[in-house]
């Protein structure tokens, strides 16, 4: 009975992990449902010097590794800091500094982990690593998880899913960019306006699929 | 034989006929790239003519200042005039190089939470408190660190300045601030605030102040425009005052509607700005067309 119970718990945990990751990739995609990281995305798809994998791999790794740090900060560090803060200073003032520190710690770990890649790829990843860390997508995911009071497992699943969701969004918009180069599109809509309208239509599709907006 | 005459390569070049056709080009990425390069290139002093012998140059150097003042000022070439035009486009963060409408910065708060005038106003106040101060503090720190770790310096500068900024905003707006959700703390990594970290050139603190103010004004105008328009379209009010009795586009309050609406506003914005740039380029071409480079 004990073995069966443990197996059930493990399966439940795996199921929960997958469901939160899928939720973050599709239904609560950081780009299409919350518009996080769109500014960088529009630059990335029109920049021929930076490849998609070169930017998105560090984003996914930083998202994944900053999730446990964010959980620890939310559940342990904030409770401790609250006891020291003066009454006139709300804890919300320190959220960006603390979560940014979590992301910076994750960046340092990713910097070391990238050593396993070949020299060429390593240099390309490390070049984009600071920009990937300072992406709205990374900090936004930590803040969303904190607002939703997720567990550690949910933090990690949602962080991984958000990173992969950002990659999916970049690939979809990049494919759209190729098709949007048609001469049938009026000149005034080429570039940023067409990207925004294209992302808006995809966002509308996800909104229609869910039937309601996500919590901002 | 009109065709032969038309195909004759030795025919004289006809003067350009300027028609009244209205051309509405976009502010293309090429124009913005030229503007960016023009801004990055320091103004070079006028070079002496290459055919002048070196001996003559040596003899000219010790001329008294009185003689130099009588010399005619050098006429501007077309290249210099175009460089000045591109510089002015680059510096115009209000209209031609607006951070939101043209450069696509700060899209997350504009699309997600600037769904009514009040939210846009709160975001404007946050931008006023954060943008210029972050840029100045980060530049000052970068001068100390030798312009290294720019990403972390800019982000943490914004995060540190967020502490007093939040207190001021809370004093001004109270609990309404919670409507902005995650997008208020997210401003510390918003490209509209920290975009400068991508530029390897280190600007002076004074320059950072000037550009920061320009960017702040451009960002605030975009926020207020989009926020007001979305409020009017979605609920028919403007800053809470009823203007229309119907909801023309309820979707405008959602991020999807924000993307679509911003796309259309951006297209109109760049079309009008592009027409003005085209006019100015034509003006430069007319004024300096006969001069050699």
Question: Which key features would you list for this structure?
Answer:
heterodimer, A: 216 residues, mainly alpha, 8 helices, B: 293 residues, 11 helices, flat, disordered N terminus
Give your account of this protein's structure:
The complex is a heterodimer of chains A (216) and B (293). By secondary structure, chain A is an all-alpha fold. Helices cover 73% and strands 0% of the residues of chain A. Chain A contains eight helices and no strands. In chain A, helix 3 crosses helix 4 and helix 4 packs antiparallel against helix 5. Chain B has 293 residues and is mainly α. Chain B has a domain of 176 residues. In chain B, strands 1-2 form a two-stranded antiparallel sheet. In chain B, helix 5 packs antiparallel against helix 11 and helix 7 packs antiparallel against helix 10. Chain B is flat and about 60 Å long. The N terminus of chain B is likely disordered. The chains are: A mainly alpha (216), B mainly alpha (293).
In terms of topology, how is this protein built?
The complex is a heterodimer of chains A (216) and B (293).
Chain A: H1 2-27, H2 38-45, H3 52-82, H4 95-113, H5 119-133, H6 136-147, H7 152-179, H8 192-210
Helix pairs in contact in A: 1-7, 2-7, 3-4, 3-5, 3-6, 3-7, 4-5, 4-6, 6-7
Chain B: H1 2-7, H2 29-40, H3 54-60, H4 65-70, H5 78-91, H6 107-112, H7 117-145, H8 150-173, H9 191-194, H10 205-235, E1 237-238, E2 241-242, H11 255-288
Antiparallel strand pairs in B: 1-2
Helix pairs in contact in B: 2-5, 5-11, 7-8, 7-10
Put the structure in a nutshell.
Chain A is mostly helical. Chain A is 73% helix and 0% strand. The model of chain A has no long low-confidence stretch (mean pLDDT 92).
Number of helices of chain A: 8
Structural class of chain B: mainly alpha
Q: What share of residues of chain A is helical?
A: over 70%
Rg of chain B computed from alpha carbons, rounded to a whole number of angstroms: 25 Å
Compute the number of strand runs of chain B. 2
What percent strand of chain A?
A: under 5%
In DSSP terms, counting alpha (H) and pi (I) runs of 4 or more, how many helices of chain B?
A: 11
Q: If you average the pLDDT of chain B, what whole number results?
A: 81
Largest protein-protein interface:
A-B, 56 and 59 residues
Whole-number count of domains of chain A: 1
The percent of residues in helical segments of chain B reads 55-70%
Structural class by secondary-structure content of chain A: mainly alpha
Distance between the termini of chain B: 38 Å
């Amino acid at each position: 009975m004990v073995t069966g119970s443990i197996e059930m718990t493990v399966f439940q945990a795996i199921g929960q992990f997958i469901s939160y990751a899928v939720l973050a990739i599709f239904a609560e995609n950081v780009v299409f449902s919350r518009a996080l990281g769109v500014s960088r995305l529009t630059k990335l798809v029109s920049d021929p010097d930076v490849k998609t994998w070169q930017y998105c791999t560090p984003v996914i790794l930083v998202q994944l590794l900053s999730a446990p740090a964010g959980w620890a900060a939310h559940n342990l560090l904030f409770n401790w800091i609250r006891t020291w803060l003066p009454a006139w200073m709300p804890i919300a003032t320190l959220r960006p500094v603390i979560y940014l520190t979590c992301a910076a710690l994750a960046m340092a770990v990713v910097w070391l982990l990238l050593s396993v890649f070949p020299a060429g790829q390593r240099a390309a990843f490390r070049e984009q690593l600071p920009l990937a860390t300072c992406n709205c997508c990374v900090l936004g995911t930590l803040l969303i998880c904190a607002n939703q009071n997720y567990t550690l497992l949910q933090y990690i699943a949602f962080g991984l899913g958000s990173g992969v969701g950002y990659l999916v969004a970049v690939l979809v918009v990049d494919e759209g960019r190729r098709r949007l180069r048609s001469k049938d599109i009026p000149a005034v809509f080429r570039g940023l306006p067409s990207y925004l309208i294209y992302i808006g239509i995809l966002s509308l599709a996800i909104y229609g699929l869910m039937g309601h907006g996500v919590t901002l | 034989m009109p065709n032969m005459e038309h195909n004759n390569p030795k025919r004289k070049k006809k003067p350009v006929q300027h028609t009244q056709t209205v051309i509405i080009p976009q502010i293309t990425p090429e124009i913005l790239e030229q503007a960016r390069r023009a801004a990055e290139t320091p103004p070079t002093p006028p070079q002496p003519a290459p055919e002048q012998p070196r001996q003559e140059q040596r003899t000219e150097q010790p001329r008294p200042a009185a003689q130099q003042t009588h010399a005619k000022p050098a006429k501007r070439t077309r290249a210099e005039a175009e460089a000045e035009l591109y510089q002015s486009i680059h510096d115009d963060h209000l209209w031609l190089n607006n951070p939101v409408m043209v450069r696509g910065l700060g899209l997350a708060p504009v699309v997600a939470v600037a769904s009514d005038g009040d939210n846009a106003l709160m975001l404007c106040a946050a931008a006023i408190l954060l943008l210029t101060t972050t840029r100045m503090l980060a530049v000052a720190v970068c001068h100390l660190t030798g312009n290294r770790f720019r990403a972390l310096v800019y982000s943490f500068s914004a995060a540190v300045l967020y502490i007093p900024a939040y207190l001021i905003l809370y004093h001004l707006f109270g609990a309404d601030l919670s409507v902005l959700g995650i997008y208020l703390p997210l401003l510390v990594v918003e490209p509209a605030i920290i975009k400068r970290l991508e530029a390897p050139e280190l600007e002076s603190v004074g320059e950072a102040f000037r550009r920061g103010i320009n960017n702040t004004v451009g960002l605030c105008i975009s926020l207020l425009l989009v926020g007001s328009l979305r409020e009017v379209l979605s609920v028919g009010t403007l800053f809470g005052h009823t203007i229309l009795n119907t909801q023309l586009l309820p979707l405008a309050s959602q991020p999807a509607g924000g993307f679509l609406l911003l796309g259309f506003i951006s297209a109109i914005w760049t079309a009008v700005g592009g027409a003005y740039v085209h006019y100015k380029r034509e003006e430069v071409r007319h004024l300096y067309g006969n001069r050699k480079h």
